[in-house]
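Reposting from the mailing list since nobody answered there.

I have sequence plus structure tokens for a pair of proteins and want to know whether others read the tokens the same way I do. The first protein:
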Amino acid sequence: MSEATAPAIVVAVEIDDPVLADRLASLLGGVAGLRLAAPGETATVTVVSRDPQSAIEPHGIELTPRERDVLALMAEGASNKTIARQLGISVHTAKFHVGSLLDKLDATGRTDAVAHAARRGVIDL
């Protein structure tokens, strides 16, 4: 099947910042195999912007952006050393964040924390 007849992935861009939306649409518009969705058209993929300051935490769990980063890495099975390396922090700081997450999620361990977070809608697995 040639590229001209290959089915396109239809992308919708829903971003409040018009400058960023135009820039993203411009960048995506030049990618082979992608097509921007027309207004009202159902898209294969939707890009949505969320303001992290206005996000309401599910079920009253308030996590810092760094705790969310650590939780995402924990969900991938990363060790404290790997978390530290990935985030450019010390192992001690990674341990601190993991401990804080265990407390906030009322979890008995790392796996339990990830399970609690997934059940409460804090992360998607």
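The second protein, same order (residues first, tokens after):
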Amino acid sequence: MKLAIVHDYLNQYGGAERIIEIFHEMFPDAPVYTSVFDPSKLPPVFKEMDVRPSFLQKIPFISRTLPYYISLLPMAFEQFDLQEYDVVLSSTTSFAKGVITPPDCVHICYCNTPMRFAWRYHDYTRERSMGALQRMLLPVLLHPIRTWDAVSANYVDYFIANSYNIGRRIAKFYRRDSYVIHCPVDCSRYHIASEVDDYYLIVSRLREYKRIDRAIEAFNALGRPLLIIGEGSDRARLQKLAGKNITFLGKVDEETLQNHYARCRALIFPGEEDFGLTPVEAMASGRPVIAFGRGGALETVADGVTGCFFNDPTSESLADAVMSFDASAMDAQTIRNHALQFDVTHFKQKIEDHIKMCIEGNAPCSVNA
């Protein structure tokens, strides 16, 4: 079996790129096709991969200016020559599923989300700082891309959704069934600490849509210590909002991250995410999660067992949840055991089994929430 991996773009590192790392571990000889490749923004392992970028790679400064070439991205993926492969495994939040495969090739798409900026435009623009000109032009650009995105969903033979939340979106926007295999976490990296300290924790990129401001407002009112790990374009604004009880740690090394997870009173997860890896990482460390009760957190956090939810999108609702939540009543080992169902070993086995069933033509096409 000759297999190729396809990904949207490799010019940043996040949960979607971690999926590519895992696919590479599973299929080390498979080339990775992508629109642009910037190894300086990625862990060293990506330099070891056979990465094959599109013609966009030749454009000067493309890693920084890629959004300006959004109208060329469909063409970039459609022009890849994949005639020699038996299986194409695409991983996407936008364009990668649009590759054109030969009739006897099985195209399996691991979908992290349908194109968010196309299908949830109003949410997308509300969550980001955009000028008046950008807000005026974006709908004009998105109309043909939305049409292409819907059509290119037909290029996929089998969809895998990273959650039931995303499975429902695939059904809504693409009218396709999908099989759910949840995002993986390497639980072996995390440990339970013998003692817990008196602080709450956020681990996140500091972007507007992450709603860190909601947590800052809540903890300003509560006066309780909050540590924030992560960097991003919204950091300066958030620091101006934060009181003295809130500390920004920026980017930290892996050992520091693991220790902060293990010793926090609870992880705060204030925004709505498609899936959300940090709650699983915190639970793998035996620590509970206080999460906004929308999106992927509903599939990972067990209310009353591994954490709790706040249901209104306000700082007051989050503050009430923090005040009423008793972290000491949660059992660390029970929390970690719950997280283990999302471990990377299970993910790899499920992906391998599903690919085999797809090739044999008897893969389950959907799982209902």
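Reply #1 (J.P.):
I read it the same way you do. The chain has 15 helices and 13 strands.
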